[in-house]
Amino acid sequence: MAEARAATQTMTALHATEPATPYLSLFARIDSFTRADLDDALFGSKSLVRQLAMRRTLFVFPRELLPAAVSGPSARVARQEYGRLVKDLERGQVTDDGAGWLATARKAVLARLAGGAELSAKQLREDLAELAGQVSWYEHKPYGAVLHVAPRVLAWLSAAGDVVRGRNAGHWRVSRPLWTRMDDWLGAPVSRCGVREAYAELVAVYLRTFGPVTERDLVWWFGATKAAMRQALSDLNAVQVRLEREQTGWVLPDDVDPAPPAEPWAALLPALDPTTMGWKDRDFYLAPALSSAIFDWSGNCGTTAWWDGRIVGAYVQDDAGRIELIVPTDPGPAGRAALQAEARRLGDWLDGQKVSALYKSPLVTWDR
User: Fold this and answer.
1) Residue 65: its pLDDT value, please?
2) CA dist 354 → 19, 107, 171, 323 (Å)
3) CA dist 54 to 4, 63, 200, 240, 280, Å?
4) Which of 56, 89, 200, 251 is the most buried (most CB within 10 A)?
């Protein structure tokens, strides 16, 4: 469990939109990792917490970063969600007063969950008349639908830090969260800080993990404004460095020396892994010609195969659950051997269990 928490701290946070991703991200980084290690950190000690934050994405945060996450990027998402909900509730004729409806729904949800209750969105909807109603979601889009409003209310409340995804009613590869009050889950309300202070803390941790980064990287990762990121860099006395790719990067003041050369390494990373998603400017680890094979139109990635610090392909499971590598360019004998070893290691750990991901590297689809 301690290693799971430490590895998450090292990466700042783990993407968790895909339920299996945090497990696979930690497996790729910890030789002795077991699923119970993450379960214990999430549901036992609660040293790691799932929180909706940057870019309306679900992350696993170290608990000590939760106040900054809730006060900064999560608060931004909560404001956006609230505004959309008010408009959709009124447009969908659920109510004439979206703001009043949400205030009543929030009070009802928190009252129902008081005392440590953990309930699914469906259970809450069935228990609370205050959550009744349906609204259009992504209207006029091919994937649009008319859905119950309850899950969106819970998403808003989670971004606001009022409720949290507690235990999972499904297995580790399926997301069936039971919702509970954040203050009950953690034993106390999440402390808050100013937005400026929150972003300074988060940007410092992000720079420690991913620096040097460009301003574009920062805006992308945090889903924030240039003004907010520039203020954070100023507050941290971040230092400008010249990047090999003829761009300006930023690092912390005590991190200006170049990193020592690393031995060649291989890794198989899951969909939305933080390393693959950590930068917006990706030419230094991904050939431009391969970018459209790894990232979809909105900038999300599926599985990736890495050799010597660069993405060289992807991987997929066959019908029997075995790992198949899809590597368009031969990485050479050492690269081939190292990637095959990782494929065997991952296959043995999964032991035939299939991981279904919403986000797939286009390369995987092209190769089928």
Assistant:
1) 97
2) 13, 40, 12, 10
3) 21, 16, 14, 24, 14
4) 89
CB 277, CB 209: distance < 8 Å = no
Residues in the chain: 368
Give the span between the Cα atoms of 148 and 96, in whole angstroms.
17
Q: Which residues does 108 contact at the CB level (< 8 Å), separation at least 6?
A: 128, 130, 131
Instruction: Confirm if 45 and 38 have CB atoms less than 8 A apart.
Output: no
pLDDT tens readout for residues 132-182: 988 876 666 676 677 899 999 999 999 999 999 999 998 999 999 999 999
237: left (phi over 0), alpha (psi -120 to 50) or beta: left
Q: How far apart are CA 255 and CA 18, in angstroms?
A: 32
Which residue matches tokens 């499971």? 317
State the DSSP string of 228-280: HHHHHHHHTT-EEEE-TTS-EEEE-TT--SPPPP----EEEE-TT-HHHHS-S
pTM: 0.94
* Unique residue bearing structure tokens 């459209």: 292
Which DSSP string corresponds to 5-21? HHHHHHTS-EE-SSTTH
Cβ neighbours, 10 Å, residue 175:
16
Residue 223: name the closest of 71, 54, 17, 12 by CA.
54
d(CA 360, CA 342): 19
Cβ–Cβ < 8 Å for 137, 129: no
Where does 55-130 have alpha helices with state H? 66-71, 73-91, 98-113, 121-127
Cα dihedral sign, 243-249-251-253: positive
